[in-house]
Amino acid sequence: MKTLAFDTATMEATCAVVEDGKKLAQSAINSTLSHSETLIGMIEGMLNGLDLKIADMDLIATGTGPGSFTGLRISVVLAKILSRASNIPLVGVSTLEALASQAAEGEEIIPVLDARRNRVYCSRFRRGAGGRLLRISEDDARSVEAVAEAASEGAVLLGDGLLSYRDDFAAARPDLVLYPDPLGKVRAEYIAYLAEARYREKGPDNPYALEPNYLRPSQAMREYRRKHGQSDNATSE
User: Which residues are in the Gcp-like domain (predicted)?
Assistant: First the structure.
């Protein structure tokens, strides 16, 4: 099975081709350009380097967030277009779960992505038998303080949320293991690995129904609500 996977939930766009659990190629770029201007070119360049086409893929996989609202739309919409146009099965994967699966150590793993305003998108996982990740909590948007308080002793944190809040986490919980930045970037190969396993277990997602996991209202919606005196209760503490 050949899987094309990509994710644009963060500032860095990433794509990969994986065949039966083996990475064939991967590309990532952090650009001032919009992901809509870079992602398709990245995918085409990667496939050309492998002498492959979209039609050669058996599965399309995309990260569904949470993360950048604009980035999520780009990735999920492109995945749906490719799936429907080429009649290729599609699987969406939590970007946080893919990030957690990149951690090489830790009994508890907490991926954190910057949600701004002293908040992070996060979830909690623990290692089960054979090193398999087991989800402890659903994807959420929480304050840095709440994440630190809930973490188990010695929990591993990774992701771009540490670029903004590393010092805050370290001050709140000196026992936490904070991964360095290069090890906390989302990599599309891990989205592919999870998607292949999920496809074999549960089959594909509906390409018409798959949606990004925004978790909270967009900035425009929050401004609209403030203007009209409405509260925003979309996120947890």
Answer: 34-145
Q: What is the pLDDT of residues 83-94, one digit of tens each?
A: 999 999 999 999
Per-residue pLDDT averaged across 19-23, rounded? 96
pTM of the model: 0.90
Assign 30 a pLDDT band (cuts: 50, 70, 90).
confident
List every span in the chain annotated with CATH 3.30.420.40.
Answer: 2-95+185-225, 104-178
Helix, coil or strand: residue 39: helix
CATH code at 104-178: 3.30.420.40
Q: What DSSP string runs through 176-228?
A: SEE--GGGGS--HHHHHHHHHHHHHHH--B-TTT------S--HHHHHHHHHT
Contact 184, 60 (CB under 8 A): no
Tokens, residue 235? 């996120």
CB 22 within 8 A of CB 52: no
Please state the rounded mean pLDDT for residues 140-167.
Answer: 97
Fold that domain 2-95+185-225 belongs to in CATH? Nucleotidyltransferase; domain 5 (3.30.420)
What phi and psi values does residue 114 have, to the nearest 5 degrees? -65, 120
